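Fold it.
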Amino acid sequence: DYDSILLLAHDTIFSSVRKYIPRLDKLQMVWIPHSLGLVFNDEYTNPERLNIERESLLAISQAKNDLVGYIGEASKEVLGKGYGVKPEKLVPLKNGLYLNSSRFNISKTQQQEDLRKWNIPMDKKLIFSWGRCGYQKGYDILIPACKPFLEANTDYHLVLLMPIETSPESYLRKIKSMAGTLPKKSITTIYAFDETLPYSLLRNQNLRILAFSSRFEGAPITALEGLTFSRGDVQFIYSNIDPLQEVLRDDPRGTCIKDFEIDSWSAGITYASRKNINSTINVQIPDIVANYSKGIDIILGVSDGI
């Protein structure tokens, strides 16, 4: 009944809409993939997924007004070079933060309560990593890499926030077994989603190191949160993948780990603990509202594309 419909279709589950309604011309579809089969080598990626993506992109390419939104420059490059999406079909709908979110507006009292809730020590230097408990996030490398460091540096404590709602049981068992080999008083593992804990830890004065050990990413929000909310002397260690490089490479606090070897990550943790860099760089954190406003203006023809 409408003259025109703009559909912002997020991720793989909605990618095939155009395939099933190819002649609905009053629909303009913008597919926004947050993960792609050519990048993500996880439990959800298989030849069927890649076929779905390619068939969907073919249908979108044949529709006059349909577009593909990219969430970051690394995603844009994969869509162009890996999937053959033409530049005129790509529109920026880049990831960013919504700073007015209730997750980022909690009192210092609540921040302290978050730490007490999970028995996180208040008298130790903290190493923190967070994200779903899956192969993608590299906890099977990070945990054993932390073991010799924590054994030698009892004043440090590792906090892992790893929600398991979508975790394969075999990987979860592996992670729990690995975590069990670390000194019990030097690690806190949290396997439930906690909305405000990341912010509370990022703002905590005892935080020393943030670890981003992902094997692959789309456009990581966690790295943006780390840059935005942690102090200038908090150090970063991160994987040598394009999406993390895109966010972190210009910050002098960062240490890029070139491979996924346990020894390399262990050396990186030790190196980061000895760094004494207090960044005064005024990082321009992308605002997701501004990013989407810009993208939708391009989609609707209000402004030129990039």
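The chain has a mean pLDDT of 94.
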